[in-house]
Each structure stands twice: as C-alpha cells, then as structure tokens.
Specification:
Helix content: 55-70%
Strand order of the largest sheet: 2-1-3
Number of domains: 2
Largest sheet: 3 strands, antiparallel
CATH architecture of the largest domain: 2-Layer Sandwich
Strand content: 15-25%
Family: Belongs to the bacterial ribosomal protein bL12 family.
Protein name: ClpS-like protein
Oligomer: single chain
Mean pLDDT: 78
CATH superfamily of the largest domain: Ribosomal protein L7/L12, C-terminal domain/Adaptor protein ClpS
Shape: globular
Order of helices and strands: HEHHEHE
Domain Large ribosomal subunit protein bL12 C-terminal: 35-99
Number of strands: 3
GO molecular function, one term: mRNA binding
Low-confidence stretches: 8-23
CATH class of the largest domain: Alpha Beta
InterPro entries: Ribosomal_bL12, Ribosomal_bL12_C, Ribosomal_bL12_C/ClpS-like
C-alpha cells in the first residue's frame, strides 16, 4: 500500500516539471539575437549605389556585386547581431533598397 502511494506521487511530479521547461524555452525563442539579412528588392534608379554598398559590405568584386544585386531577392548575411543588422537595413533603405531581417 505505501508503495502505491509513492508511485502515484512520483508520477504526478514529472508532468508538473515538463510545463515549466516549456515556459522557460518559449521566451528564449522569442528573444532572437542573430538574424539573417536578405536583399529583397531595389529601385532601378539607385542600382549603382546598391551595387557599391553590397560590394563594400560583402567584400565582393564589382562584377560579383552586380550579379548579386541583379539576382535579388537573395540572402546577404547570416548570423548577424541585431544592432548590426538594423544598421545595414537602414543603410540600404536610405539608398533605395529593401532588406529584411529574418
């Protein structure tokens, strides 16, 4: 008889611990710190500026930068910290391109 009560008590404690772990994991997933940057589109008039900026950011040759921009939408960088990603998005927005953080 005491053994049956002990098993029932142990069984009840294990399911109670599982929701606590799920609650702790959820906020960590929401607080994303690294982002992937994707060049979505750009204005045709600002294409030379966008090519120069991509060349400077990614360290590509002029020809590779032109091909990169012309193949938009395309992934630019992966695993970029939030502050740096926001600066890049703002810079590209200022010259007429659209970039998104994913």
């Amino acid at each position: 008889m005491p053994m049956g009560g002990f098993v029932a008590g142990g069984g009840a404690a294990a399911p109670a611990a599982a929701p606590v772990e799920e609650e702790e994991a959820a906020p960590a997933a929401q607080e994303k710190t690294l982002f992937n940057l994707k060049l979505e589109k750009f204005d045709a008039a600002s294409k030379p500026k966008v090519i120069k900026e991509i060349k400077a950011m990614l360290g590509l040759s002029l020809v590779d930068s032109k091909k990169f921009v012309e193949s938009a939408p395309k992934m630019m960088k992966e695993g970029v910290p939030k502050e740096d990603a926001q600066k890049i998005v703002d810079t590209l927005k200022a010259i007429g391109a659209t970039a998104v953080m994913e």
